Amino acid sequence: MKAFIKQHYYWVIALIVLLEMFIYVGILNNINGLYIIPISETLGISRGEYSLAFSAKALAGALSVVLSGPFLRRFGYRKMAGSFLLVAVMAFLVLSSSQNLLMLYVGAIMIGMCEGSCLTAGATFVVDRWFHRCRGSVLGFVTAATGIGGSATCILLTKIITASGWRISLAVCAGLTAVMALLILLFIRDHPSDIGLKPFGEGELSGKKKKEKDHWHGFTMKELVRLPNFYLTILEVFLSCLCLYIGFYVIVPYLQSRGFTQAEAASMQSIMLLGMAGFKLLCGVLSDWIGAKSTAGICFVATSVSFYLLIQTDSIASATAAVIVFALALPMTTVTIPLLTASLFGYCAHNTSNGIFLALPAVAGMIASPLTNMVFDKTGSYLPAFRGALILSIAVLLLHIVICFISNIDKNKLNATEDIKEEIP
User: Fold this and answer.
1) How far apart, in whole angstroms, are the C-alpha atoms of residue 122 and residue 280?
2) Please, what is the Cα angle at 241 between 236 and 243, to 5 degrees?
3) If we measure between CA atoms, which residue out of 200, 67, 60, 72 comes closest to residue 139?
4) pTM for the whole thing?
5) Which of 141, 238, 304, 336 has its CA 20 to 30 A from that of 121?
6) Which residue from 115, 126, 150 is spatially nearest to 22, judged by alpha carbons?
């Protein structure tokens, strides 16, 4: 039995990462909205002050994601994720014992510090090392757990808040996170070679196909920062996330403004979140089948179509269709980013560049939420913001076509240079 587990340890790694996404990231999906009313009322602060604490969390999170690459490469996922999950345990305990706004800020910032190693960047790091085949499918599978985990922990934490209060609920979050930290420290190995294995699927391709498809080396960071396409891709990812968060954060009030009841609008949001979980897995599988660039293109098309449908929606059927298509676009904020950038630029500098790209959704979200609500305050409607997002999403789709064209040119130049080097005796 021991030998069997060791031989198939790839799936143990995938299961542990999936559990982290399900439990810890599932909790984080609820930490902002679920506690805003009970904590603000208990501490005697406004909801705006509460939200500012989690804006500080977002800033800390963006910084931690940017810095995650070098630290993950230096210390490994096991030490980084395990250590920062223990920091998250302390953060939940600080939040649960908060008596004033300062303690709320401290706890929120501590949680933000953990995002680089414990969210998508960390999951990408370990999946890249353990899986050379089915990489997209596995990454899609483990990150899909965040949506399902968010739904499950929402139900659990809501019941605890109702029965025992928000402080006990946050203490339970600390306990669940501590269990997750223990599992990672006990069972995660940073590289298959640590237990005498090779990455899953390594060696199944040979020659030029292996070089291009299996685990393309790509550009060094020094070469990457000289490529105009690198900066165009940063712009593409940022603008696409900005479009998506314009709709994501206000989907319930927007649908209510279109004449839906609060219950109907909330049910549409639930459909969207469940769809997002399924489509994360689908986008991972599609990246393995048709390539990450084509999969990202599907996400961009879905963004444009969903905003068009949302602007036109006037019935339950049309709203359901709109949020399902919108859910198809949402993987662009998480799982599609590392797969796309690896396809465009290779894996040589992926740890460092991945941190930069995965920080962009947090920055986009910080801008999109106040921007959308400012438009509403000024016009009394979310429609102008949605129309602007529709136009911007079409521009992003056109930009993606340009980026893919330039990427092929850059890749051919790099491969030609490497071929020449190999021919020189």
Assistant:
1) 17
2) 95
3) 200
4) 0.77
5) 304
6) 150
